[in-house]
């Protein structure tokens, strides 16, 4: 994440210093020749060659602020020395040399300030919006006094341990004022009481704690389970499966880490939702009138659904059933010929027009245009223990349409087999998601997704 930012910052520092120094030296624009212009272009490109050779852009987690500053200054001075040597044979050398000197000095201060700002950025972001992640540690035979120090040295204080689970201990204790428990029930209670979402398993990763036990215990809690493969000795990445915020981990069960790749999806969702709502506003108005005239009750139907990481939100749909059709506390899926559905509602459900108000949920950031379809909370409670990986669908934002829907699994899923198939398609989408896959699903939804035989 920081490498593209640092490249852009370095370019702005160097080009800005070139412009300021040019304004200082060449007060009369007529004295700035085309030779000077060519030298300036070379001066903008040359540093990034020396930066590459001196490995200026190595990962920030492996570099201190001081060494980073010294490396970039060395590369910058080398580039300017080469530029001076290139420019010497050409006329008007005195003014050009003064310009290059001013350029070098101003850029030195700018690059130092930029580098310091880049290294301070993670701490600023964590204190402003991304607070240090609170984690629970599973450390079989590992709750020693140096455990937290070893974690901090590897993670650069990006994470805060809140509890340690060590079943090898005879009784509960504390390590640096952090509770250490030896029973799974106590560990589970602290996890839920403090709303912790991260479990780290420290070497040895699988003994005596079984990953299956942790998985079963927290399968419906939206907890990420990861393994820190190396904390002692020299770093090794032979068995590393992923990088989480700069830390090598083995992801046993975790929310997909997409970083900046998700930004185009977030931007597209808001723009597309706003465009759709404006474009079909006459249709929405006509549907609203039809729903209001069809039967007594509100135009919009609101129901609680789970969103990303299990956060509950209120989903919007056009009302398609008679008011009070469902008994309080129960939600039954609509079936073919369901007497609860109004005549207008039957048309809206078969054409998916009842889903269009959900673009309001997309604008609010609660849903995405494409993603696993959210089910009623009551259905989640029913299916979570019957269908494998059912709750994993909520590791990402739910969508108005999805990979399962364009493959024929929309509407009623009365049989367990149908729900299992829907979950398999959702898992495929989560695993292989790309922005262009979203575009494909939207296109397929437009072509064939508005009418379905199983939508009653």
What's the shape?
Answer: flat
Number of helices: 15
- Give, in order, the helices and strands: HHHHEHEEEHEHEEEHHEEHHEHEHHH
Structural class: alpha/beta
Taking Cα atoms only, what radius of gyration do you get, to the nearest Å?
29 Å
What are the segments in which pLDDT stays under 50 over at least 5 consecutive residues?
230-240
Helix content: 40-55%
Count of discrete structural domains: 3
How far apart are the first and last residues' alpha carbons, in Å? 46 Å
Total beta-strand segments: 12
Membrane topology: Multi-pass membrane protein
GO molecular function: phosphotransferase activity, for other substituted phosphate groups
Subcellular location: Membrane
Keywords: Membrane, Transferase, Transmembrane, Transmembrane helix
Give the helix/strand layout.
Blueprint: H1 2-25, H2 34-53, H3 65-87, H4 93-128, E1 133-138, H5 147-155, E2 159-165, E3 173-175, E4 178-181, H6 184-193, E5 198-202, H7 211-218, E6 224-228, E7 242-244, E8 247-253, H8 263-279, H9 281-294, E9 300-306, E10 312-318, H10 343-351, H11 358-363, E11 368-370, H12 377-383, E12 399-401, H13 403-406, H14 416-432, H15 435-449
Parallel strand pairs: 1-2, 1-5, 2-4, 5-6, 11-12
Antiparallel strand pairs: 3-4, 6-8, 7-8, 9-10
Description:
- The chain is an alpha/beta fold and 456 residues long.
- The protein has 3 domains: 2-128, no CATH class; 133-254, NAD(P)-binding Rossmann-like Domain (Rossmann fold); 261-449, no CATH class.
- Helices cover 48% and strands 13% of the residues.
- The protein starts with a helix and ends in a 7-residue tail after the last helix.
């Amino acid at each position: 994440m920081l490498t593209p930012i640092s490249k852009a910052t370095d370019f702005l520092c160097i080009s800005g210093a070139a412009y300021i120094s040019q304004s200082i030296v060449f007060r009369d624009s007529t004295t700035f020749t085309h030779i000077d212009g060519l030298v300036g272009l070379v001066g903008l490109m040359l540093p990034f060659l020396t930066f590459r050779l001196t490995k200026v852009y190595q990962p920030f987690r492996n570099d201190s602020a001081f060494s980073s500053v010294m490396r970039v200054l060395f590369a910058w001075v080398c580039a300017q020395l080469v530029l001076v040597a290139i420019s010497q044979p050409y006329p008007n050398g005195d003014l050009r040399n003064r310009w290059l000197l001013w350029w070098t000095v101003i850029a030195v201060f700018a690059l130092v300030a930029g580098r310091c700002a880049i290294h301070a950025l993670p701490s600023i972001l964590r204190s402003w919006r991304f607070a240090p992640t609170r984690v629970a540690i599973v450390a079989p035979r590992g709750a020693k006094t140096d455990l937290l120090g070893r974690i901090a040295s590897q993670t650069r204080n990006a994470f805060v341990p809140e509890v340690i689970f060590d079943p090898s201990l005879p009784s509960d204790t504390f390590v640096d004022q952090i509770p250490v428990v030896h029973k799974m029930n106590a560990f589970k209670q602290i996890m839920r009481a403090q709303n912790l979402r991260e479990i780290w398993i420290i070497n040895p990763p699988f003994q005596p704690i079984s990953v299956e036990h942790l998985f079963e215990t927290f399968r419906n809690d939206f907890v990420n389970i990861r393994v820190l493969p190396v904390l002692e000795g020299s770093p090794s990445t032979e068995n590393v499966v992923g990088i989480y915020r700069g830390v090598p981990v083995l992801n046993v069960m975790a929310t997909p880490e997409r970083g900046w790749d998700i930004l185009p999806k977030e931007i597209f969702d808001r723009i597309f939702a706003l465009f759709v709502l404006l474009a079909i506003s006459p249709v929405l108005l006509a549907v609203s009138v039809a729903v209001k005239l069809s039967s007594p009750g509100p135009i919009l139907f609101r129901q609680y659904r789970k969103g990303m990481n299990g956060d509950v939100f209120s989903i919007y749909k056009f009302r398609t059933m008679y008011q009070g059709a469902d008994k309080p506390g129960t939600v039954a899926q609509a079936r073919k010929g369901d007497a609860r559905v109004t005549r207008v509602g039957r048309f809206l459900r078969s054409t998916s027009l009842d889903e269009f108000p959900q673009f309001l949920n997309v604008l609010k950031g609660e849903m995405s245009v494409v993603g696993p379809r959210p089910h009623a909370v009551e259905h989640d409670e029913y299916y979570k223990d019957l269908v494998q990986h059912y709750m994993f669908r909520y590791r990402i934002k739910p969508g108005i349409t999805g990979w399962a829907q364009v493959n024929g699994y929309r509407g009623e899923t009365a049989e367990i087999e149908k729900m299992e198939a829907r979950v398999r398609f959702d898992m495929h989408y989560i695993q292989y998601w790309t922005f262009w896959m979203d575009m494909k699903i939207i296109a397929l939804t437009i072509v064939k997704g508005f009418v379905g035989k199983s939508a009653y």
